[in-house]
Amino acid sequence: MAIRKEATAEEQEVQIEAWLEELTLDEKVFMCSGHGFLAHRGDEGRRYCEILYPIGAGNERLGIPHLLFNDGPRGIAKGNSTCFPVPMARGASFDVDLERRVGDAIGRELRAHGGNLFGGVCINLLRHPAWGRAQETYGEDPFLLGEMGAALTRGVQHHNVVATPKHFAANSMENARFHVDVSVDERALREVYLPHFKRCIDAGAGAVMSAYNKLNGSYCGHNPELLTAILKEEWGFDGFVYSDFILGCRSADAFGAGLDVEAPDTIRFGEKLAEQIRAGDISEERLDDGVRRVLRILLRVASAVDPETYGPEAIACAEHVALAREAAEKSIVLLQNDGILPLEGGSPSRLLVLGALAETENIGDHGSSHVYPPHVVTPLAGLRAGAPEGFEIVHDVGEDLERVRELAIAADGVLVVAGYTHADEGEYIPGEPPDAPSGGTPSIGGDRLDLTLGETQEALIRAAAGANPKTIVAVMAGSAVVLEAWREEVAAILLLWYPGMEG
């Protein structure tokens, strides 16, 4: 049965009820899980989101398609898509319209890849200053999170893609995220941790992803107060809730609490959920409610007329690359400037660039937000491409501090590129021990244990600044950085927040 374009909301609801009359219990339960993720990840050499993951809906007998998922906050994780600056960078621009345009480009690229469920509206409130995943959100202010998240939602959904605010709620640390219990009183929850999610719901978000952590004693994916009482009943959310991957759903009981879909695969729902429904532990009315919510959002995007066609030429196109560069430029924060910036008029004419990060492709975390753009411009390459004729740029990684001092004395100015990479901070994904059947895989990402740049990079900054008073430091990072130990020794400081550097 083909889904009719331009069907009204009333006509869509009639279609949903007709489907519910025809679907068997097992077919309904099938619609409440993802499918194929574990089989795909088990294939050697497969990377996360290399394919579109079916999450929710899907019935071949009745011609009901799946919702097809892809991440993430800085661009589509599939193929070679445009990599935008991380949300922390875009949040530093305070430019809501820019964020809407970024969402528009991301939505267009997801449709060009064939998907329609976007998991990348990350609006968690930054509370842990060294949170490894801080780069994926916009900051620590609920109003900023709400406005930027709503803008990204509107931009993405313009292309009939379902946007997903996440992780609902009170998620702001990595290494303990699977078991930490966040205790929040009612006022703080309402005034600090929930308003930005409500703002995205009001902007039309069709789905919400629950969080791994507990909130006031109950895992967020099993929390009826959060998922049912507040989100669905009080806020009137008519879309569906799906779990954060694998451990966001601990048992079939989560469905009774308000979790509509287990993502990304059928592990704890499936037959276990069907058994609970047959036993009367979870009502059939609740099952119909969950399926109805998924089908409602599916029809909402599938019945709408597309504003354009979506061919592969949209992926990492010149327009989107230019937008990524605009976002990178607007996200850079000039934290300190003692009269040295901007560099212009041939002064300096010889710039020394220091640090391994200057020639490293460093566009952010390698967890679920990892994007694989067709090309990346490093800071050093960008400087050389933009330098006027006669402007000499010399680079040194900075391992020999005596050589650094000699080069700094001979230069008219110095730029130290310092900071972190995915090896220092990012989404925490636990690995396996060396004796595991797979041969063991190391954990990646996690929260930082130190807010400084570390002894090696701070020594490099001091050596450069001691030899040349015209020293600029550009810090590439995704979370808090303590600069006070060397701040007064340098002329200028720029915060880059993993700016993307594509194009």
Spatial sequence of strands, sheet with the most strands: 10-17-16-13-11-12
Task: Report mean pLDDT, rounded to a whole number.
Answer: 94
Measured as a percent range, the helix fraction is 25-40%
* Proportion of strand residues: 15-25%
Basic shape: elongated
Uncertain stretches: none
How many alpha or pi helices?
16
Sheet with the most strands, sense and barrel status:
6 strands, mixed
State the end-to-end distance. 44 Å
Q: What structural category characterises the helix and strand content?
A: alpha/beta
Strand element count: 17
- Radius of gyration based on Cα positions: 24 Å
Give a quick set of tags describing it.
single chain; 503 residues; 4-stranded mixed sheet; 16 helices; 15% strand
